[in-house]
Amino acid sequence: MAVEDYESGIKKNPYFKARIIVSLCLSLCATYSFGANEKRTKPGYIPIGPFDLFPMLDIRQGYDDNIFRNDLNKKPSWVTLIRPGFQFALERALNRYALSYGMQSTIFWDSPPDNFVDHLLRGDTHIELNRRNRFDFNAQLLYSHYQRGTYFSQGNLINAINEPDQFHTYELGGRYSFGAETARGQITLDVNYLDLQFDNHLERTRVRNRQDLTLSPSFFARIFPKTSLLAQFEYVQIDYPDAAGTLVDASGDKMRYLVGATWQQTAKTTGIVKVGYLQMNFDDPRQKSFSDFTWEADIKWRPLSYSSIVLQAVRNVFPTQGFGNSIVVQSYGVDWEHEWGYHFATQAGVNWRDYDNKGSRRKDEMLTTGLELRYRLRSWLNFGLSYSYSDLQSTQSTFDFQRNVVMFSIFTNPSAKRYLQNIY
Questions:
Q1: What is the third-level CATH fold of 2-422?
Q2: Residues with Cβ < 8 Å from 154, sequence gap 6 or more?
Q3: Burial of 192 (0-12, 13-18, 19+ CB in 10 A)
Q4: How far apart are CA 329 and CA 281, in angstroms?
Q5: Residue 346's beta-bridge partner residues?
Q6: For 379, which of 150, 268, 306, 318 is 20 to 30 Å away at the CA?
Q7: How far apart are CA 101 and CA 142, in angstroms?
Q8: Residue 414 has pLDDT above 80, yes or no
């Protein structure tokens, strides 16, 4: 069956075989690089002149019993995921410059039209002019897709399209920080611009092209050596330039007012907690503006040097996924990672989310849980076996689904694996 699916994939996509060969070559190069570097003082890095090269690799093979995330259109498939990548970094005193590239090749052996290759190129810069003035800049280019059954192709729409929705994004961001690390007060200003453009199914997706401009100043007041109070304002201008005059135009402004605290290594914990109030205003008077409470919490507790527990909670509003004018997400999660020695480690987590599609009658609740077992053969070679379960219940039952995914993985190291997951 696997051989037949492979031949079918080559016939339906002439680049299918090429992407497999390129991915495997990059993977072999990355594996060799990690092996050559195993005994160096900076594990995972390879010095190349003044630069550090950080190769990354994550290969997964598994089974997904509901790739379209819909019980009425349930389709299982074997899945292969290949994520090679690298980062070049240059450090000069307190300044750092980095260029990263990641590729994600996804192969559905029982659904070749859903095969895809994502590409991401990113640059990051950290500059410290002096002890009081610091700058961070980043630029990112992403060519990616929304898998069929997600975002704007949920439900029965997957039967009307024969490939995923494809898009690309340009993103520019920066942060200016004023105040020494040990100062009683610090000020930061975050600026970010995102331009999302769809590349296919334009008769349906063109109105979802979006441009976001985010401005967020914050003030930190140190009350203890490693604990600070904070006040933050966040302004996001959301523009759908190709939806003007249509019923789906959700252009508008989001404002959040937050207060909270942040601390580091106090009683073995590191965390940040923010609570506040948000307002969502739309340019189109036919869209109903609203206000709500908002909060964020990210707390990491290390009861032991080899064990950590992360607690997360979020309530915020995000751009619509095709139902109503926006979506309020309330999420609570806990993740436990434990090392049982040098070779064995486990990671377990559970997350509950509530989705409220404003301007629509649809509301969802979703439970996700998972467990991963990891075996470290070398510092540069790890194996993993994971299981995840998802259950979504909607007020519109046509979107209900349950999903089970089992994966076997080979990856360079856990930090590289997390990095590749986070950049997409």
A1: Porin (2.40.160)
A2: 69, 70, 321, 322, 399
A3: middle
A4: 17
A5: 338, 373
A6: 268
A7: 10
A8: no
Residue 5's pLDDT band (cuts 50, 70, 90): very low
pLDDT at 18 over 50: no
Q: Which two tokens stand for residue 36?
A: 């050559």
For residue 15, the Cα-to-chain-centroid distance in whole angstroms is 27
Q: Residues in the chain, how many?
A: 424
Look up residue 4 and give its two tokens: 């037949």
**Percentage with pLDDT > 90 across the chain:** 78
Q: How would DSSP label each residue in 321-342? A: SSSSSEEEEEEEEEEEEEE-SS
Residue with tokens 């509530």: 354
Residue 337: name the closest of 376, 387, 301, 383 by CA: 301
**Residue 125 predicted with pLDDT over 90:** yes
The Cα 4–Cα 182 span in angstroms is: 63
State whether residue 214 is helix, strand or coil.
strand
Residues sharing a CB contact under 8 Å with residue 328, sequence separation 6 or more, in sequence order: 292, 315, 316, 317, 318, 355, 356, 358
**236: closest CA among 260, 259, 210?**
210
Put simply, whether the predicted model's pTM sits higher than 0.85 gets the answer yes
Whether the Cβ atoms of residue 110 and residue 76 lie closer than 8 Å to each other? yes
Collapsing DSSP states into helix, strand and coil, what is residue 281? strand
Q: Where are the domains of the chain?
A: 2-422
pLDDT tens-place string over residues 200-256: 999 999 999 999 999 999 999 999 988 999 999 999 999 999 998 888 999 999 999
CA distances, 135 to each of 94, 98, 267, 288, 313 (Å): 11, 14, 31, 38, 29
d(CA 6, CA 109): 7
Spatial distance between the Cα atoms of 100 and 87, rounded to a whole number of angstroms = 4
Using one digit for the tens of pLDDT, what is the confidence trace for 141-156?
999 999 999 999 998 8
* Identity of residue 224: F
CB-CB contact of 272 with 297 (8 Å): yes
Side-chain-side CA neighbours of residue 208 (13 Å): 24
| Amino acid found at 112 | P
